[in-house]
Amino acid sequence: MWWRSLSLCVLTALPVAAACSFDKSGVGGDDDDDLVVADAARATDASARFDAAPGTPDAAGPGPDAPVGPPDAPAPPPDAPAPPPDAAAPPPDAPAPPPDAPAPPPDAPAPPPDAAADTDMDGILDAVDNCPLTPNPGQLDEESDGVGNLCDNCPSVANPGQENVLESAIDRDGVGDACDPRPTLGGDSIAMFDGFDALRGGWTVGQGTSTWSVSGGVLSQTDDTGTSGNIRILYWADDTFGDAVVETTAVIDGFSGTFTTPYRTVGAVASYDDNGGADTGYGCVQLRQNGAPPDLAAILTIDGAAAITATSTLGWTMNTTDRVRTLLYTEAAGGSQACDLENLDTGAASGATDTDTAFTGSHVGLRTYRVRASFEYLLVYSLGGTLP
Ligand SMILES: [Ca+2]
Ligand SMILES: [Ca+2]
Ligand SMILES: [Ca+2]
Ligand SMILES: [Ca+2]
User: What is the pTM of this model?
Assistant: First the structure.
């Protein structure tokens, strides 16, 4: 930048110009451009070149050198520091909070069943087992809803989804909504189901003779002889039940007598004891009573008197091929019975109730009189509390 020092010297008065040397270094007072400020020492040289009193002979030769001039003024203070920048701009608004965390992903889908697994080791691979946790090599499925009899929460009603949500979560029971006799009360369970795919050894004749047989998935009673001694009772001897509902569905195969022949019956029994031939209990039957139709839903006592204790008028009269569902509610210690019948062909239904306390047996079974019928199944719900 030495050329800038040159132009400054041209425009300045001589004495000053004399002080200007070509300071090519740009460093003030460093005339020799050696980048070492030594001009204070060189001031001695400058004073030697100027006469302190021009026009006046020097006394006795040149006088002593004028006193050494003051050293170069100290370098001006460096430029004032730049003012601080404008006050910092206020921080921007606080950043918006992050959006809500995304919902967690739904539960991962259940892994597909291991096609090669057989959890219950019944010989049916889980992938095709209709009760993958219950050994059932026969895969019996009464109403073909894809859930095997042994693990179906409504084995007599098609309910492939096994819905069971009508009770509260804390007392949800083992009976599905589609068939639960007390759909909002917990404690119930499926105690027994027999789809009559074979005649098992526990079935025992209580009254009559052995006129029962199994074929084609139904249990048929084949004698409709009309004498008074031909009441037919078959009961399950291998288990006993407390508070229970016995359910069966039967198709009427035929009946004896004329239109007015009395006391044709078909239905279920409970609170039953064989008592060595002096059996007792209750029946819930469709009763074709002497006289004008329609028929009745009737609660019967099973003993020597076979009394009718309660009835309700049905909306139909017994006909061959009718398909009727029967439900008999009983309390184990006696005291309460209910008998509900539904004609599955028409949807007509009716029921009777009673509060008889005579019998406290604990077996269940089937009953006919002067009727041939084919029973599709027998189902027992065990109740966890008092009857509705
Ligand atoms: Ca199984
Ligand atoms: Ca089923
Ligand atoms: Ca079912
Ligand atoms: Ca239930």
Answer: 0.70
